[in-house]
User: Which sequence fits this backbone?
């Protein structure tokens, strides 16, 4: 069984395994990410988990979203804002569908992997759950793999979920 670091602020006298844990689930809107959430709920969810769905956005999009001069924003920028809002709304619906209490956090950096890594560290997460597209080794070398990047850099347990062909 996985054990997680105890909440430093908790002083209820319970053992570390009984204290709440902060679970970050990386979301990108793909079926792979949804499967990771489903896997988490089915296999390691605890009712007292604190769940944060983390969505990494491109640096350019982050600038658009925080730009105060919205009067001058282009039609493309408005479409990007709308798409992001729809995606975040769909994450909220996933929380409702799975009857989970949680929050959604958008993060941005030079790459999705760096953004998620930064969020995991800032949130002081206890475990990271992410999906995997299952790229072959050549594609992974050419395109990179966010899950592999995180696996080698995150200092907490990482659960990488990949749907097997028998589950599809």
Assistant:
């Amino acid at each position: 069984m996985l054990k997680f670091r105890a909440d430093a602020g908790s002083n209820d006298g319970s053992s570390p395994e009984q204290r709440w844990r902060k679970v970050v689930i990386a979301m990108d809107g793909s079926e792979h990410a949804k499967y990771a959430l489903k896997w988490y709920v089915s296999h390691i969810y605890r009712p007292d988990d604190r769940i944060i769905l983390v969505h990494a956005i491109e640096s350019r999009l982050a600038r658009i979203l925080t730009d105060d001069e919205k009067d001058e924003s282009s039609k493309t920028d408005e479409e990007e804002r709308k798409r992001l809002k729809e995606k975040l709304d769909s994450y909220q619906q996933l929380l409702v569908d799975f009857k989970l209490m949680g929050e959604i956090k958008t993060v941005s950096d030079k790459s999705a992997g760096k953004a998620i890594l930064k969020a995991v560290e800032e949130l002081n997460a206890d475990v990271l759950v992410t999906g995997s597209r299952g790229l072959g080794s050549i594609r992974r070398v050419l395109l990179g793999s966010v899950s592999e990047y995180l696996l080698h850099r995150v200092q907490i347990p990482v659960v990488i979920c990949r749907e097997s062909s028998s589950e599809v």
Notes: Residues 1-12, 139-144 have pLDDT under 50 and may be disordered. Strands lie at 22-27, 50-57, 102-108, 127-131, 158-161. DSSP finds six helices and five strands in the chain. The chain has one domain: 20-161.
